[in-house]
Amino acid sequence: MGYHAASMTTAAPTRIYVDADACPVKDEIYRVAIRHSVAVTVVAGQLIRVPQDPLIERIAAGSGMDAADDWIAERAGKGDIVITADIPLASRCVKAGAEVIAPNGKPFTEQSIGMTLAVRNLMTDLRSSGEITSGPKTFAPRDRSTFLSALDQTIRRIQRRYADQAATSKG
Fold this sequence. Notes:
Blueprint: H1 3-8, E1 15-19, H2 26-36, E2 39-44, E3 56-60, H3 67-75, E4 81-83, H4 87-95, E5 99-101, E6 107-108, H5 110-128, H6 141-170
Parallel strand pairs: 1-2, 1-4, 2-3, 4-5
Antiparallel strand pairs: 5-6
Helix pairs in contact: 2-6, 4-5
């Protein structure tokens, strides 16, 4: 199954890119994507198991430090959705025009990404200087339902935008 075969079956040229190595909501992504006929590219350092579906493709980006992040950032753009908890990757993808959602359902936007990056960098500096800081909050069942809702709304919003553009260009 190649990239082109999957992309021809989508209603809109939207693709979901999944930063898959530590993603706790992969099964949810597959369900929502298949329901909306949206192609999914699952990117990890090594090949991981994905459902057998023509809409779902998997990419082994290699074991380099940011290989999966770089692979996604080079391809994601306007009309695409990126699922990641990685703040630097989220920032790159937001700048490229993609919609970015964390696995807990929190969207990364142009408005929020600067502050999010600043907090991340501050926490990294504190940890490296020996300060004890708590890690990220644990993933809760409520996060799963918040994520499902956010992904569903984002897909619908992008598909509406494409439908409106198509109607405008015909009229």
